[in-house]
Structures are given as C-alpha cells and as structure tokens.
Amino acid sequence: MKRKNALALVCAILAVSAVFAGGGSDGKKSDGKIILKMGDNLPDRKNGYGAVIETINTEFKAIHPEVEIVTESYQDQPWQEKVKIYATANQLPDVLKYWSFGGMMKPLIDAGLVEKMKIADFKSYGYMAGSLEGNVFDNELYGIPISGDMWVVYVNKGLFKKAGVPVPTTWDEIIASAPKFKAIGVTPMVTNGKEGWPLCELFDNISQRINGDFKRVDSAINRKAKYTDPDFVQAAAYMQKLVKAGVFQENLSTSDYGDARNMFGQERAAMYMMGSWEMSLATDQNFSEPFRNNLDVIKFPVVKGGKGSADDVLAWFGGNYIISSTSKHKDIAYEYVKYLGKRFGEIAWETQACFPAQKVTPRANDTVVSKKLLQIAADAKSTSGTPGLDRSDSVFKEDHQELIRQLCALMITPEEFAKKLDASAARAATQE
Amino acid sequence: MNSLFNNKKVVALLVLPGLCVMLFAIAAPLVISVIFSFVKWAGFGKIRFIGFGNYARLIKDEVFWRSLINVLALILVTVFIQNVFAFFIASMMTKLSGGLSRVLRTIYFIPATLSLVVVTRLWVNIFHPDYGVLNKILRLIGAGDAAKAWLGNPDTALWAVIWIMIWQGFGWALLFFYGGLMTVPKELEEAAIVDGANRGQLYMHVVLPYMMPVVQSIVIIDVISSMKQMEMAYLSTEGGPGNTTQFIALYLYQRAFKYSEYGYGNAISVLFVIIAVGLTLVIQRMFRKSVDQI
After folding, report:
1. Cα–Cα distance between A142 and A116 in angstroms, integer?
2. Which of A103, A150, A234, A347 has its CA 20 to 30 A from that of A207?
3. CA-CA distances (angstroms) from residue A116 to A82, A96, A143, A324?
4. Which of A15, A87, A411 sits opposite B17 (nearest CB)?
5. Coil, strand, or helix at residue A79?
C-alpha cells in the first residue's frame, strides 16, 4: 500500500511539474549576452525613423558586443495600448519609445515605472530649447525627446498640375478644388481617420485658424473656456463642411495610417495631412521616383475670414525615449539612451528621416520637403505646444478621438460634438 | 496497475494537477476580475475602491448595450443565416461523389484555415471605397450609385464586419453539419421515404431531430464565438464609425487598455461572463425541451 501511495505521489509530482514547467529569465541569453528589450511605434525598419534606430542599434552593439537588442514595433495606437498592457503586467521593455505629453507620461511616472535620468548628461547634444524640459516632471528628467513635430499638409505637385489646381493657401481653395481632383480620379486629401488623433489635430488647428489663438484649447481643458463656445462649434461645423465637400477619402473614419499613407504615396491622393515626421516620404524607396520628385509640403492652410495665420504652427515635442524602472539592465539601458541622444539628431538629418528635436544644419542636398519644413519652422510666429487631446487624462483623449470620428462620419452635429467633448473635459477636470 | 487506478485517493491525486490548472486558469482570473471590478484603477498606479460604481455606470453605458445588440445581431445572423446555408450546402454535398465532395469541403474550409489578420485585411481591401474590388464590380455593371465605403459608412459597417466574420466561420459550420449528416443512418431515411415522406418532411422530422445534439453544439459554439468576437472588428474598424461595429469583447479591451479604465473593463468582463453563461444555459434548456418533445 505504501508503495502504491509513493507511486501515486511521484505521478502527481510529475504531472504538476510538467504543467508548471518553465522558468524565469534574468534577461540574459545562454551565451551570457545581455538582452536589451526595446519597444517602439516604428514598424518600418528600412525607412525613416525606424532605419535611424536600426543604425544606432548596430553602432551601439559594435561598441557593446555583450549586448543583444530585441525590438518589438507596432503602429502608434496599438503601441500605446501595448505599453499600458505591459505596465499593468509590470513588464515594460528596458527602453521604449513613448510620448512626453503629461496625460501619457505622468501616470507611468506616478506609478514608479519610469527611471530618472540626469539632464546634465544630455545638455551637450544640441537639443532645441524646451525639448528636454518637456520631459521634466517634478524637477526630474524622465525621458529624452526625439523629434520636433509640426502639423502640415504634404502635396503632390504633379497631381495639382494634372487637375489644373493651384497649390492652396486656404481651406476654401481646397474645398473648391475637390471636384477637380475627383474628375481625374484622385482623392483630394487623405489622413489617418481610424485612429482619430489626426482629426483631433485638425480640429485644434481649424479652431486656431478661426479664433486666432492656440491657447483657447488649453483654456477649454482647464475650464476657463468651454468647448461649447461659438469658435469651437464653428470649427466642428467647418470640419463637417470639409467632409461634406468630399475633401477627404470616403472611408475617413476607418482608414488607418498605412492606408492613408499608401494612398498618397501611390498617387491616388493629392494631399496628405500629417506631421513633419513624414518628411522621409521624400526618400522612401517604397514609392516611385516621380512621386518623390513631385512631393512638396505646405503650411496648414488658413480659414477665410478667420483670425489665425499660416505662420501659427501646431507644433510640439512629442516622441521620447524612456527607461523602465523595472529593467534588469538599467545601466546599459542608460548607456543606450545616452548614445541615442548623441546620435539620433545627426543620423536623422543626414538620412532626412525626420525633423529631430536637436538643432540641425541645413545642407545644399537636403530634400525639398526638409528645406520647406525648416522654413515653416523659421517662419513660425506662434506654436501650440502639446495637442489638446494629450493635455488631459486618457479618458478625455479617447473621448476626443471617438467624438471626432463620429463628427467626421456625420453621425453627430457640431453642437452635439461640442457638448459631449465639453462634458468629457469637465469630467476630466474634476479627477484627482 | 489496474488496482492502483481503482484507488479513489490515487485517482483524486492524479486529477489534482488538472484541477489546479483549471482553478488557476479559469476560477482565479474570474475571482480577480470580480475584485478589480469594484475599483477605479488604470492598471498601474493609484487604486481606489468604488464599490458598485463601475456597475452603476455600466448599466447606463449606451456603448455597452450597443455592443451587446451587435453581438446578438451576429448570433442571429450566424445561427439563422450562416447555419441554414451551411446545412443546405452540407446536405447537397452528402449526395455528391466522395472525390467531388472532398474537393468542395476543402474549398469551403480554406477561409477557416487562414489567419484572422489575413482574412480581415483581405476583406478590408475588397470593401475599400477607392481601390476595392466590390465597388469596381458595381461600377463595371452600371451600379456605381450603390458603391460606397462599406466599412466607413454607419449604415453598412456592421453588416460588412459581420460578413467578414461569417465568411471565415462558414467552413466550420459546414464541416460540423456534414459530419452530422453522415451519421444519420441510411435505413432511417429509407424507412421515412417508404412511409411516404417527401424531402422536406424527411429533413424536418427525421434528419434534423436525429442531428439535434450536433445542432445544439453548433449553436452553443456560435453563441460563444460571437460573444468573444473581437479581433476582426478591431482589425477592420476598431468598433467605428461611431461604435456602430462595437462588440463586447472589443469594448472591454478598449476600456481597459485604451481608456486606462482597468476597473471598468473588469466590470464589463464580469457582466459579459454572466450574460454568456446565462445565454448558454437558456439555449441548452431550449434544446433539452425540443429533444424531449422528439
């Protein structure tokens, strides 16, 4: 009987062992190499931003042969969701790309998930005024900025010529040109409507073009103004006017980043409303040479009769790199971030991948797009700072994105949009 | 060895690991979900107990009810359209030669073998208003007025998403029905025909009642998979435009990880489990009644 029980016990132990087999990891491979886990929103590793990071990774690994870098990449929104999932599971990658906006960074910092950095370590890397400071919370630096972002409109000059349309300076001109583009089988303008945030940028920018003041958005968030005020309702109505005039792609509210970008790159759309980080379109080998030669960029157009000018620029320092406080390799992660800060600006400008957060030296062989972007930045009389949707909590951000999608799908009136957005801002203002 | 397995203690001991896994994988997450449904929490950072606050909010949440209605629409379409069609095709296939039937079954089952991402991207491209094949065909046959942004239009988005879902699931339904039909004894069918039953009566009074356990399984699987539906809506429309294609599982995920309302997401999941279990019990009872009547 004893033997039977012993046998049964062994069976049970084996069964349990089999089920729970596996083990933890100390973040090292069997050959002793340190695995530095990284995550970002740059799935294209051969062009633009992603290629810059890959170059930096290669250089860093040459300096630190004991390190192996494992990266996972998703598009913007899926990456933001993934970060929240990792944060919930306390499994953030060692180094990750995130955003310095208070609404996004502060919760991670408050939860003790982000490692502090020393601002003195980055002062000599030529960062533009205010860019490093955007990553300072409670007098501590928690991340380094990557890019200086401006909201602009990319244009395909070839398609404008084909449609017999002059490059626009006002939204009214764009509305008037829509039938001409459609007559040649081209969508006038595309953007990523599925994720909502580009439409929120459009709303902020149209509002400014109407009321002449970027600070109105901040006032609405801080409850000194209301989203139901006439200028915001007018901006919402103007956006519906653009949709009804057929300015955007028909599936605006479900068209994602890749869809919109490809529509423009494959010359199915004449304009692409997006941030300055898309300046690498000019060197993107995935698109044809005629497209790249026809590519240009213009200032965000004005609204006829509005108070805002084309030199008021919706611009911010958004993307940053942070280190997880749960990282098993904080020292090497910090070394990596320092190297990234040192090299990113140089390589990004050299390869014309994006508009870095560091000062750049214009060169004769810069692309037309990068020259124009530099000019837009130089001409700027006022800038917005953090976009409205990122100035509050995550619920407000998602509400903003959802409501703007409904507005652009013509499912709600401008008044309903303003009322619901204002209610969300009011709710967020009462949160701790 | 036989006597060893006759020992109840031994059997209990051997069952224990599996039971532990069951508890670990099902009961524990459920209990944790219930606990978290009473808090306001982003998933990290400060946590605050708010009692039934999340549930009180959930009852008034229009998007939640909208997503539940969408799930019910998916269940109805799956059960009463997809399954009827699958049953019809399966019964036709039982009359075909073995080789032809095998080829057709393989063809019908191909969508089920493809990854959800591939299938969804495929249909997103077909439905695309600009370069989609569907609109191109409509324009080619002179029905250009009917061309639209199928997934971007609030009037058509839900049906377009449901179409993608049932297109992928059709192969499974067909396979189940085919398998069920093949188990119906030939003598039973022949006896019914000898007794004067026409084709309709044969299926209504002999074949279907015989297959009722199979039908019950299919319907329960349909209900559960409809309730769990998330990936295809996420990949095609992300619940939009304006939550018209929102489904409970997707809404739960978005609330927890987009809105950073982890507690609220858990409240949705708890109600979700209750509804799913309730619906399954109702269906089982309905089938038990119908089987008893037979």
Report:
1. 5
2. A103
3. 22, 14, 8, 9
4. A15
5. helix
The answer, yes or no, to whether residue B219 has pLDDT greater than 70, is yes
User: Which residues of B fall within a CB distance of 8 Å from A12?
Assistant: 13-14, 16-17
- Domain segments of chain B: what residues? 60-293
Domains, chain A: 34-145+317-362 (3.40.190.10), 149-314+384-430 (3.40.190.10)
Domain B60-293, CATH number (from 3.40.50.720, 3.30.420.10, 1.10.3720.10, 3.30.70.360): 1.10.3720.10
Residues of B126-145 as b/e, b for ≥16 C-beta within 10 angstroms? bbbbbebebbeebeeeeeee
Asked if A140 reaches chain B (Cβ–Cβ under 8 Å), the answer is no
For residue B279, which of B223, B196, B197 has the smallest C-alpha distance?
B223
Assign 3-state DSSP to chain A and report helix, strand, coil percentages, each to 5.
50, 15, 35
Q: State residue A2's pLDDT score.
A: 52
ipTM over 0.95? The verdict is no
**Cβ atoms B41, B263 nearer than 8 A:** yes
CA A118 remoteness from chain centre = 25
Alpha-carbon distance of A261 to A263, in angstroms, equals 6
Q: Which string of DSSP letters, residue by residue, matches B188-249? A: HHHHHHHTT--HHHHIIIIIHHHTHHHHHHHHHHHHHHHHH--HHHHHHTTT-STTTT--HH
Which pLDDT score, from 0 to 100, does residue B284 have? 85
Residues in chain B closer than 8 A to A195 (CB atoms): 238
pLDDT, tens only, B159-211: 999 999 999 999 999 999 999 999 999 888 889 888 888 888 888 888 988 99
pLDDT tens figures, A51-94: 999 999 999 999 999 999 999 999 888 899 999 999 999 999 99
Is the Cβ of A7 closer than 8 Å to some Cβ of chain B?
yes
Nearest beta carbon to residue A107 from set B45, B236, B240: B45
How many angstroms from the chain centroid is the CA of residue A139?
25
CA A35 and chain centroid, separation: 27
Q: Touching check for A81 and chain B: CB below 8 Å?
A: yes
CA distances from B289 to A143, B211, B292 (A): 64, 15, 5
